[in-house]
Structure formats: C-alpha cells, structure tokens
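Thread: "does anyone have the structure for this chain?"

Original post by V.I.:
We have the sequence but no experimental structure in hand. Need at least a predicted one for the grant figures.
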Amino acid sequence: MPRPARPARRPTPTPLGPPAAGWALTGTLLGLVCLPAAVATWSVLAHLLADEEETWQLFPAGTRWPELAEGTATALVFGCVVLALLAQSVLDRLPTWERSPDAFAAPGRNAVLGGVALGAFAATPGFRDPLGAALVWSLGLACGCVTAVLVGRLTRDVEGLARRRARVARLRAHGTRVRAEVLAVEVPLWVGDRPRFTVRARFHTPRGTLVATGELLTEVAQAPVVGGTVLLWYDAEDDADVLVARDPGSVRDPLAQERYRPPACG
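Reply from O.Q.:
Generated one for you, tokens below.
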C-alpha cells in the first residue's frame, strides 16, 4: 500500500553560480554605453545649452569649458548616442539577464542613467552661474540615485537567475527523473511573451508517493494541464527540491491559447 503524500518541504539553498556571460564582455559593453552617454550629456549641458552663441541656449552665463562649434557639439552628441544605443541593445541581450522578469532592472538602462549622471557631474564645475551649476548637479544626483536603486534590483535579479541555473544543472546531473501527474496548474506569471506556470504534481519514489510544486517556463501551446504529465527531477536527499520540465508525451490543453494570454501593456 503506497504511503500518503507528504507536504513539500522548503528547498535547500543553492550556491550562487557564475554569470552566464563573461564579465570582460559585460564590462566592455557597460563602458560602451556609460561613457558615450556621459560624453553626450556633457556636450549638451556644457555647449549646446550653455554657450552664449549657441541656438539652444539655456544658461546665459555660459561655462568655462573650451568652446566647441555648434555643429561639432551636435555631431559629438549624435555619434555618442548611436554608439550607446548599439551597445545597449547587445548588453540587454546577454544571457546573464536575458530572461529577467524585472523590466525596470535592464542593465542598458542602468548604464545610460549612470552615464547621464557622470556627464552632469563632469559639466558642473565649468558653469559660471551658481544656479546653473546647482541645476546640473541636481540632475546628476537624481540620475545617480535612480541608477543606484536599479543596480541593486538588477544585482538581486542576476544572482537569483544564476542560482536557478546552477540548481537546474545540479538536478539534471544528479537528480532522479520521473514522470509526474499534474494535479493543479496555477495562473502563470509572464516572462516576456512566455508564461511561467506553477505546477503541483504527484510522483512515485522508493519511499512512497509524493506531491511537490515546481515552476515551468514554456510556450502557451505547451501549457501543462491537469491530468497530463510533466517530467520531474528530484533530489534523493531532499525530495521537495524538484525541477519540472515539459513532457513531450503529455496531453495538451486544447484551450491554452484562450486560457492564457499575456497581460496587456500600458
């Protein structure tokens, strides 16, 4: 007679694994976003908005910085913006954070804001007008504070993603694989255009029948369904620590496309 199902225990922590993208590449791209953004910000503040003879004059007192022709300053800003945008598009697609559910913690956005802060701080000493210097310094301070908050969120997200990757690799390499029956499927969270389901499944082990809960990131068409099956890896020493994956041989939910829709933007 099989033993009754036991409630799942809290999984044991998994040590932090290395980042999926090399830090040399990541650091280079961060520099290619941050430094051009800083130069562009400095050029706009110190020349296009401050020089006495420029078209977009905002600070009449001007600055102590060497003068640049309006065309030169504009070209410098345009070139830096293009370079920063190209590097940002590559940076945000690195596998270190490519599936981050936190859109506000995008590393490219962090680097741009950090560059704006650096550019504003660098431009501040050259302003003759104390009010102009205070305004530019305040811009740098605001961007710097927002950058610090977003970097903290990004760091936590990257660490969590690295831990999940390390845990997946450990369970696939050393865990026991079984086919588990799906008992419940909770309303999913969304990562981009893919749902992350919370699946409760029943499986058999040498110690009896167990029930565990795990997450499954998959396409809507491959959504798990109650009565179907999933592939499940569990740790023999901690059978509550499980990894759930799609079972190619399982029945599918014919109403998945209608049942699960990504949240509307805006």
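V.I.: this helps a lot. Helices lie at 23-48, 70-91, 107-123, 130-174, 256-259.
O.Q.: and The CA atoms of residues 105 and 152 lie 9 Å apart.
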